[in-house]
Design goal:
Strand content: 5-15%
Radius of gyration: 26 Å
Distance between the termini: 93 Å
Number of helices: 3
Strand order of the largest sheet: 1-2
Structural class: mainly alpha
Helix content: 55-70%
Largest sheet: 2 strands, antiparallel
């Protein structure tokens, strides 16, 4: 027999409201993963042509924590991606400036040769 997961609901309204705000900015694959979490913990949800809906106040704490953990993972990845893009832009700009300096140096050499 499988052991029943305790269904406690102690997470505050404010924390659940904050989680909702984070969920709103997820892209489709991330939202689909939230659905997988809901299914895993056998939470209630409805589906229609407008999307999938569930009551954040109606999910148990363990489901809430799993969603919260997944959101932390998503937000951390976004921040790391942003840092990588910033670093790549910085390197690209440095290389662009370096190549401009090199081409200016070469054109000076050409001018000296013709003089």
């Amino acid at each position: 027999m499988s052991e029943e997961i305790p269904r406690t609901f102690t997470t505050s309204y404010e924390k659940r409201k904050q989680l909702f705000e984070y969920i709103k900015v997820l892209v489709r694959p991330e939202q689909e993963h939230i659905l997988k979490i809901l299914k895993k913990f056998k939470e209630n949800y409805t589906e229609n042509s407008n999307g999938i809906f569930f009551d954040l106040m109606g999910i148990c704490d363990i489901t809430f924590e799993a969603i919260e953990e997944y959101l932390s993972f998503c937000l951390k990845n976004r921040e790391e991606d942003k840092e990588r893009i910033t670093e790549m832009d910085k390197l690209r700009n440095e290389n662009y400036v370096s190549s401009d300096d090199s081409s200016n140096d070469n054109s000076d050499d050409d001018n000296e040769k013709t003089a």
